[in-house]
Amino acid sequence: VSNVKMLQLEQNGSSFSPAALNKEMFPGDSSKENEAIDVVFPLLHGPNGEDGTIQGLLELLNIPYVGNGVLASSAGMDKVVMKHLFAQAGLSQAKYAAFHKKDWSRSSEECCEQVEKELGYPCFVKPANLGSSVGISKCRSREELEKAFELAFQYDRKVVVEEGVIGREIEIGVLGNDEPKCSVVGEIAPKTDFYDYKAKYEDGDTDLIIPAEVTDDQYAKISDMAIKAFKAIDGSGLVRADFFLTADGEVLINEVNTMPGFTPFSMFPLLWKEAGIEYADLIEQL
Question: Angle at Cα 113 formed by Cα 160 and Cα 127, nearest 5°?
């Protein structure tokens, strides 16, 4: 958004009008076909994009939009809340621990000891509310763990630490509302130590394998868990669900992305293209 109009809103009792706000935000004759807003496709990622804030604004404006609502978007952005919901739904996932900045400020020693006792090394430290692998570190020692905490707390007041899992990175697309369906599965094969920001966006040193080689039983397990995760956050429209598939066949859910990358060459559209839904048709369905 290059130009944001600041609005001074008057709320008289309970007479607040979304229609009036809509008119303020989008002035002009909405009867003109080229000016009317039929639906918004919020292809925005990370904070202030897929965390429920834009979705809440669109709700206030009473404008239809594509994808997850306020609750699902915010729950999907906060990795700690998301993991709690997954646990409540009985989904298998890597062990994790959550910390607030005040915990770290009060006793960094206790935080490190808890990680070492409950998770061990290697482990991953992540800001709770961020995307695109920003601020994530892989830790193999106390020294690296301390640096990782300091880095993650630069981006968020809350961080999550996960145990290291050796396994293939498998992704699947979910599409729908009350009766969601799943795409084929794909595999992320980074040539670096893990799929970080640079591997995603800068060096292109990553292979996308679509469809991934999995057994029928593994696909059934992954798709079932993806739909359960979708329902656990009260999803709508779409998510991309990310998993680890270990050498012994165990399936662990990592996270869901409530507004995945959506270029014609992004994983989510490619998964559905392989499943028989072309890019334009996918947008039309959404």
Answer: 15
CA–CA dist 215, 218 (Å, integer)? 5
pLDDT surpassing 70 at residue 66: yes
In-domain check, residue 262: yes
Residues spanned by the domain of 214: 166-285
Q: Where are the alpha helices (DSSP H) in the chain?
A: 18-25, 53-61, 70-77, 79-88, 101-106, 108-118, 142-152, 197-201, 216-232, 267-274, 279-285
Do 171 and 278 belong to one domain?
A: yes
CATH number at residue 181: 3.30.470.20
The pLDDT, as a whole number, for residue 37 is 87
Q: What is the average pLDDT value for the chain, to the nearest integer? A: 87
Q: Supply the DSSP string of 130-161, one letter for each residue.
A: --TTTT-EEESSHHHHHHHHHHHTTT-SEEEE
